[in-house]
Design a protein that fits this description.
Aspartate Aminotransferase, domain 1; Aspartate Aminotransferase, domain 2; 2 domains; 7-stranded mixed beta sheet; 4-stranded mixed beta sheet; 35% helix
Length: 462
């Protein structure tokens, strides 16, 4: 067979020419195996998994033999069970285990297989709850700009991530967006401490403008992940959001797809704010990437009402309550608990944040933020004015490639400023990372930033 120019076989030894990748121009090395915090490609190169797999997934690390063993055992016993007619043991047990760690009054769990399914089904549960309460005009979801809740149409409707929304325009449903709680680029130009929490009060204004009788739910990430680069809300934000949702009779959905199960140094992200949402949508870390697994965790009052009204949930997917995934979830939660990994997240998270703060000496590092092992950095052309790099320069992508070439995987993001301009990176290494491995991450990043800065055209230097 004649090899054409695009056939990657010659480069990596694998024929990747029939594979549709997200980035159509990049030469993807082939990953061969993972062990602990490391990934190895087929050429034997080692990478630190600094962003938790693709984006904040890997919690207990790669290649865990205990998980592999229970997977094999479960696959032999029963890998798939028809959810319309059977309960299965791992499914029931995992719902119980989640109930043991979920916030008080939230002891009801519905299992799914991905984050977008979780957020969409969270909205559906909210709708069914209001429908049964005879609040049948309540349809509108309020989300936040630079909030990300998934790539399917319903999840994208609630999301405020411009690049991913843009070309689908009117194919998305109606949703309202308010600005995020993001002090580095406060929408009102205010300073925390003297701001009267305008970002939270914007929710009340949006609900009143839309009409509370029409507003179904408010959805937000406790720490904004992909679209802002690990921005936690200020301490007073979620308590005020909770108060506004109660006052206006709006369901509060916490999107904990990234922040759930220990990632931020608490069992759930909302625990940092001592707030109990009505619904939690969660995924990723619960299976640590070993199988697709997600969960919607509901307030008891929601399920009590649906049960009392015999209102069966009008949703569900083929892989709901999947025994193989549930078995993995049980084991991952056990490992997190037995190895005290949330404590390690807190300790290593502080070390990572301190290390990254050391990189503020770089002329392009504008801000460092995060919570637990979810850390972000924002890059600017001018630190005083916070002017971003032109989007077409692709600062984040350049930095990603330099870090990757040095054996560190990070997750780059754009649109930090206004959905279009702005560059940030997200870092989220596995919970098992050690102090010296954190230092390695910071050292590689330091070098990679230096290289990208050296390559900046003269007109882009401040
Ligand atoms: C906060 C948040 N919600 C939802 C999703 C969607 O999850 P998935 O990609 O598993 O559908 C993501 C994915 O990154 C996310 O970060």
């Amino acid at each position: 067979m004649e090899l054409d120019g695009t056939l990657k076989q010659a480069v990596v030894g694998w024929d990747l020419s029939r594979v549709v990748f997200r980035d159509l121009e990049r030469d993807y090395p082939v990953v061969e195996r993972g062990e602990g915090i490391y990934l190895y490609d087929t050429k034997g190169r080692r990478y630190i998994d600094g962003s938790g797999g693709s984006s904040v997934v890997t919690s207990i690390g790669h290649g865990n033999r205990r998980v592999a063993a229970v997977m094999a055992q479960q696959a032999e016993t029963i890998a798939f069970s028809p959810a319309h007619c059977f309960a299965n043991q791992p499914h029931v047990e995992l719902c119980q285990k989640i109930g043991e760690i979920s916030p008080p009054e939230m002891k009801q769990t519905f299992l799914l297989s991905g984050g977008s399914e979780a957020t969409e089904n969270a909205v559906k549960f909210a709708r069914q709850y209001e429908y049964v309460r005879n609040n049948r005009g309540k349809f509108t979801v309020i989300g936040r700009w630079q909030g990300f809740h998934g790539n399917t149409f319903g999840a994208m409707t609630a999301s405020g991530i411009t690049y991913r929304r843009q070309i689908y325009g009117p194919m998305l449903g109606h949703a309202v967006k308010i600005p995020p709680c993001f002090c580095y680029r406060c929408e009102w130009g205010l300073t925390y401490g003297q701001c009267n929490l305008e970002c939270a009060r914007a929710l009340r204004r949006a609900i009143r403008q839309e009409g509370p009788e029409n507003v179904l739910a408010f959805i937000a990430e406790p720490v904004v992940g992909a679209a802002l680069g690990a921005v936690p809300a200020v301490p007073e934000y979620f308590p005020l959001i909770r108060e506004i949702c109660d006052e206006q009779d709006v369901v509060f959905i916490a999107d904990e797809v990234m922040t759930g199960f220990g990632r931020t140094g608490a069992k759930f992200g909302v625990d940092h704010w001592s707030v109990i949402p009505d619904i939690i949508a969660t995924a990723k870390g619960i299976s640590g990437g070993y199988t697709p697994l997600a969960a919607v965790i509901l307030r008891d009052k929601i399920m009590d009402l649906l049960r009392s009204k015999h209102s069966n949930f009008r949703g569900g997917h083929t892989y709901c309550a999947n025994p193989l995934s549930a078995r993995v979830g049980i084991e991952v939660l056990a490992i997190i608990r037995e190895q005290n990994l949330i404590e390690n997240v807190r300790r290593m998270g502080s070390r990572l944040l301190a290390g990254l703060q050391g990189l503020l000496a770089h002329p392009t590092v504008g801000d460092v933020r995060g919570k637990g092992l979810m850390a972000g950095m924002e890059f600017v052309r001018n630190k005083q004015t916070k002017e971003p790099f032109p989007p077409e320069y692709q600062f984040g992508k350049r930095l990603f490639e330099e870090a990757f070439a040095r054996g560190l995987v990070i997750f780059p993001g754009t649109g930090t400023v206004d959905g279009v301009a702005g560059n940030h990176i997200l870092m989220a290494p596995p919970f098992i990372i050690t102090a010296s491995q954190v230092d390695d991450m910071v050292a590689i990043l330091d070098e990679a930033i230096g290289v990208v800065e050296k390559g900046l055209p003269a007109e882009m230097r401040s």
